[in-house]
Amino acid sequence: MTKRQEICLKIFKALELLIQTKTLSEIKVIDLCQASGVSRSTFYTYFYDIYSVPQWIWDDSMQPTLYKIGNTLTWDEGHKLMFENLLSRKALFIKIYWENNYHSILEYGYRGGYDAVKKNVENRKKHVWSDTELVELDYTIKALASLTTKWGRDGMVVPVNFIVQIFNDHVPQFLKELCDT
């Protein structure tokens, strides 16, 4: 483990504890630094603000899963792995999903998911998106980000295979074909 990974993990673990008693917007950087034993200057070496910590964890969880859909993973494979990764960090994400602003995981995940699927299909399939397809992609990813948020807010009790089936049932056929073949 690199020094960067070690420090980021200490900060993540501290956030995971603090988020059990406060909302993310109530947690201050100084609280996180005290709980993690990391100085403020070190914190700002790796993160911009308090919101960038769960975003870092999100990206770490999505890099081998959601962000690979349409590239090396099918629609269902990527989402199954995504939900399994979120479930492995349940203590954090069931609390984080209650945040609702531009920095929230709902919005951040939507932007990352949209960009990844769009880029992966363009690069792998050399697909040129029509305006109509981009609207469908946008609305589909936004709806699925909201479903993921609901799953998190509900305590992640719906089994992974069932939630993946729900995702599969709510994707336009052309999009699934672009991601799966």
Would you summarize the structure shown here?
The protein is mainly α. It has helices spanning 3-18, 29-36, 40-46, 52-62, 75-88, 90-96, 105-125, 131-153, 160-169, 173-180.
Report the span from N to C terminus: 36 Å
The structural domain count equals: 2
Low-confidence stretches: none
Mean residue pLDDT:
94
How are the SSEs placed, and which strands pair?
Layout (H helix, E strand, L loop, with lengths): L2 H16 L10 H8 L3 H7 L5 H11 L12 H14 L1 H7 L8 H21 L5 H23 L6 H10 L3 H8 L1
Helix pairs in contact: 1-2, 4-7, 5-9, 7-8
Task: List its traits.
181 residues, mainly alpha, Arc Repressor Mutant, subunit A, 10 helices, 0% strand
Description:
With 181 residues, the protein is an all-alpha fold. The chain folds into two domains: 1-50, Homeodomain-like (Arc Repressor Mutant, subunit A), CATH 1.10.10.60; 51-180. The chain has ten helices and no strands. The chain has helices spanning 3-18, 29-36, 40-46, 52-62, 75-88, 90-96, 105-125, 131-153, 160-169, 173-180. Helix 4 (52-62) runs parallel beside helix 7, helix 5 (75-88) packs antiparallel against helix 9 (160-169) and helix 7 (105-125) packs across helix 8. It starts with a helix and ends with a helix.
